[in-house]
Structure formats: structure tokens, C-alpha cells
Amino acid sequence: MPQLTCQNLTLGYEGKTVVSGLSFIVNEGDYLCIVGENGSGKSTLMKTILKLKTPMSGQLVIGDGLTQNEIGYLPQQTVVQKDFPASVREVVRSGCLNRCGLRPFYSKAEKQMAEDNMEKLGIALLAGRCYRELSGGQQQRVLLARALCATRKILLLDEPVAGLDPKATAEMYALIKKLNDSGITIIMISHDIIASVKYASHILHIGGQSPLFFGTKAEYLESDAGLIYAGLGGDQA
Amino acid sequence: MIGLMAKLARYFQYPFVRYAIIVGILIALCSSLLGVTLVLKRFSFIGDGLSHVAFGAMAVAAVLNLTNDFFLVLPVTVICAVLLLRTGQNTKIKGDAAIAMISVGALAIGYLIINLFSTSSNITGDVCATLFGSTSILTLTMTEVRLCAVMSVLVVAVFLLFYHKIFAVTFDEDFATATGTKANTYNLILAVIIAVIIVLAMNLVGSLLISALVIFPTLSAMRVFKSFRAVILCSAIGSVICAALGILISIVAGTPVGSTIVAVDIVGFALFSLVGFLTRRY
Fold first, then answer.
1. Are strands A31-35 and A57-62 parallel, antiparallel or unpaired?
2. Most exposed: A20, A196, B8, B20, by fewest CB within 10 Å?
3. What's the pTM value of the predicted model, to 2 decimals?
């Protein structure tokens, strides 16, 4: 059974449809990139997967032993976070909160998990530093470590390289690839079609009233949408 | 100096001075704890808005001749707090506008009601006392001190119990909700606590100056400290020290209690800004 099954999903705001007829599945270990133009409903789709929004119609089923709480999420940065006084360790630990239930404090195991994840993402030395004073790439790693504390199975990334310089972008993609290789399912929203085609195993291209494409990367490159967009990107690169 | 100490020692023999110090410190502690969350959530002005609501409710209570206005003022303020914090995301009127609307509206209606129906001969004096904090902190009864102590203990307990959740919800509400933390519940808890603190604090500094108690300690602490825990601790300690100092000065110098505390808070902010500026240069 797939970890995530979407059937004929219609999404929108306040009665206005943004995307309709959306169907796709995500299996364990997949690396799905959701591409599309601004306003095509990518972020709405992600919020729906996270149950922050309800779909207007259609079904979204989580399976394969995955529970709603176990979806790790890397959101785009918010304004609030820009001047938020928090140490890296505090931010990463907050990812463990879904394991706490009503227990008011973190257990030893949870604290250790936060340390392990910081180690894994190469930010262990930054643990005591203030989150707002880090570079964009470092901040993304911190949020990624937090997401890893919340999940061992699936990560949802909302434009993880937005605002990063080329070096940090490359490092971020490599890191995500490494996590995917270790068995974590990745669902990523991206503007960057070239990188999506390079790293992803599956592509979902949405836009307009109907999804343009869903399938594996190889199929995408052969499809109409793929030829137009990936080809276009190829010329620029 | 010795004369000053003797003077203070003499004042401390009066129970009302001791009560004032106790209540002042408790309120300063509670408001600074929540101040951090409020400032970071961009709700700095909720203190102002809610205190005006409390003012309006007090006016109504005065006109109705209620012996204890607490039981009208608290529920009304709680309801408004919940409504205001709810407006965070999906409403037509955004947070700051909603606060401004409720704040100004409640103030105007409150003043109107007092003017139309009040039996008191000294309306301006009454209004001024409610807004700027009167000497009412010096006329506290034992019951009021107990009530305030119980409320403060509750506030601090709830805050400690939900400390990590409050952090998560403040830092990133979407992430917290997505990973199964009930952000709405915690927002509701926050709203109720804030309302309770404001109603309590009106006794001390009056409705206009409550915002100062919420904002100054937090902003001071944020100048210097860089982790959430350090900021909370520093703002709590700083706030208590400022409140205690302010009350002592006002007793000795005969200045109004509320404005003296805020003045001390401003000095504290200046000091912390200086320290923050100096340490940032490495």
C-alpha cells in the first residue's frame, strides 16, 4: 500500500478552485518533486497533505503504517522567525514534541535524537548558536533537523532552496538526496525543474485547471510538459 | 542612605505596603512570562486592546453598581482575548486592525457609559484612575492579595507545564500543527491567561500602562540574550526587579505607582540596549 494516495483531489480557497482532478501516489522511498508555476496550487497541495487545509473534494489517504503525526515538514521561513530568539538546539528539539503527548518535558531519548540529527546534518557545532544569526543554508539545515526529529519516514519540503546561494543550494540538494537514499520518502515543492529532474524519481507537474503530468522522471522527460519545461530549462543552463 | 533605609523599614511595617510589593511582583512576573510570546507573535498591542476592553467592562460594572466588578470584567476580557487571538489567520479583519478596533471601541463606549450614567461627582478622576492606575494598589485587601497570588501561581504553572508547546506554537504554528500539536488549543490557553493577567494588572498600573509591563521586559531581554529560555528567564527576573524598584521609588518619592514602574522599565531597556550594543561588537 502506498504511503500517500490522492484521488481526484480538488483544491482551492474560499470556493475558488485552484487545482482539480489531482491523482497521484507516493510509495516508500520515492522522491517526488511537485513543480508548477506560482499560484498553481503547489503550496495548497502541501498544506492539504499536512491536514492544515481540507480538500474541496476528492480523497487523500495515508497508509503503509504512516500516521498523520509522522510527516516531517520543512516550511518556508516566516516573518516571525527572522527575529526570534531561539538557540539551534531549542528549535531542533521542538521537532520531538509530537512524541511527548501530554508530557511537559523532553525525555533523554528525545534530547539524544535531537543531538543525533544535528550531527547528521552537520550543525552539531552550531547547537548553542542563535537561530536568527545563522546563514540561510544553516537555517534550512536546522529546520531539516527539526523535521527529522518529527519523522523517520517521510519529509515534505516547501521550496527548500529558496533564497540560498548556489553553493548552499547544491549542498542542500545533496543532503536531501542522502536522506532519500537512507530510506526516507521525499516530497518536495520546487521551482527548479532542472534540479527536480536531476534528483527526483517521480514528478508531479501541476498548473491550470488540471494536472499536466504525474509519473516517473523518465516518463516526464518524454511527456509534452516535460519537453516544454525541462527542455526550456536545458537551453538556459 | 541610612535615612532612606530607615524610611523604607518604617513603610514596610504597614501591611498595605507589603501587599503592594507582593502583588506588584507577581503581576510583573506573569506579564513578562507571556510578553515574550506576545511580542514574538506580533501581538504586542493586545495588552493595550484588552485593557481597554477591561476598562469598558469596569465602566459597565460601575454603572450597574456591582459590588465586585471582577466577575464581569474577567469573562468579558477573556472572550475578547479569545476572539482577538483567533483572528490570526482566516479573517477579513487582520490582527492589528482587530485589536485597534476593539481597543478604541471599548475605550469610547466605556467613557460614554461612565459619563451618561455615573453617579460619582468626580468622573475625570475616576477615569484617570482606571486608565493610569490609581493608588488602588496601596488599598489592596488581604482577599485581593490572595486572589492575585492564586492566579499567579496558576499562570506560572500553566506556563511551565506547556513551555515547550508554547515555544513550538510561537516559533512555527504550521509545523506544530502539521506534526500533531494542537496549536489552536494552546492559542486558546494563551488567550485566557493573557486576559487573566490583564485584569489583575489593571489594579497595579491601570489599563494604559499594561502594555509596558508586557513589552519592555521582553524587548530588553531580547537585546542581550539569544535563546528562548534565556530571554524568558531574563525578562521575568528583570521585570520583577523593575517592578519592585518602581514601587519602592514611588513610595519614597510619592510618585504615581504605575508610571514609576514603567519609567524604571524604560531605564532597564536603555541599559540592556547598551549592553547588547557593546557585546555585539565582540
1. unpaired
2. B8
3. 0.82
Distance, CA of A208 to CA of A82 (rounded, Å) = 33
What is the domain partition of chain B in residue ranges?
2-280
Check if A46 contacts B (Cβ < 8 Å). Answer: no
Task: Give the separation between CA A5 and CA A27, rounded to whole angstroms.
Answer: 9
Q: Cα A32 to chain center, whole Å?
A: 9
Which among A94, A100, A132 is the top mutation candidate for probing chain B, defined by the most B β-carbons within 10 Å of its own β-carbon? A94
Cell, residue B74: 474577567
Taking contacts as CB-CB distances below 8 angstroms, the residues of chain B near A89 are 227
Domains of chain A as residue ranges with CATH = 7-66+153-237 (3.40.50.300), 79-152 (no CATH)
What residue in A sits closest to B161 (Cα-Cα)? A104
Chain A positions touching B189 (Cβ under 8 A) are none
E-strand stretches of chain A:
4-13, 16-26, 31-35, 57-62, 71-74, 154-158, 185-190, 202-205, 213-216
Q: Where are the beta strands (DSSP E) in chain B?
A: none
Q: Strands A57-62 and A71-74: what pairing?
A: unpaired
* CB-based contact A90 B228, cutoff 8 Å: yes
Interface confidence, given as ipTM, is 0.82
pLDDT in tens, A67-86: 777 788 888 877 778 778 89
Find chain A residues with C-beta within 8 A of B159's C-beta. none
Phi and psi for A138 in degrees, rounded to 5?
Answer: -65, -40
Establish if A78 touches chain B: CB-CB under 8 angstroms. Answer: yes
**Is the Cβ pair A98, B175 closer than 8 Å?**
no
Instruction: At B8, list the grid cell.
Output: 523604607
Q: Quick: pLDDT tens for A124-136.
A: 888 888 888 888 8
Average pLDDT for B42-51: 80
Question: DSSP states of B40-106 as a string?
Answer: HTT-TTHHHHHHHHHHHHHHHHHHTT-S-THHHHHHHHHHHHHHHHHTTSS-SS-HHHHHHHHHHHH
Three-state DSSP class for residue B121: coil
Torsion sign (Cα): B173, B175, B177, B183: negative
Kindly report, residue by residue over B107-126, the tens digit of the pLDDT.
Answer: 888 888 878 876 666 666 66
d(C-alpha B94, C-alpha B278), whole Å:
38
Backbone angles phi, psi at A215, to 5 degrees: 170, -170
3-state secondary structure string across A131-156: HHHCCHHHHHHHHHHHHHHHCCCEEE
Question: For B2-280, which CATH superfamily applies?
Answer: ABC transporter involved in vitamin B12 uptake, BtuC (1.10.3470.10)
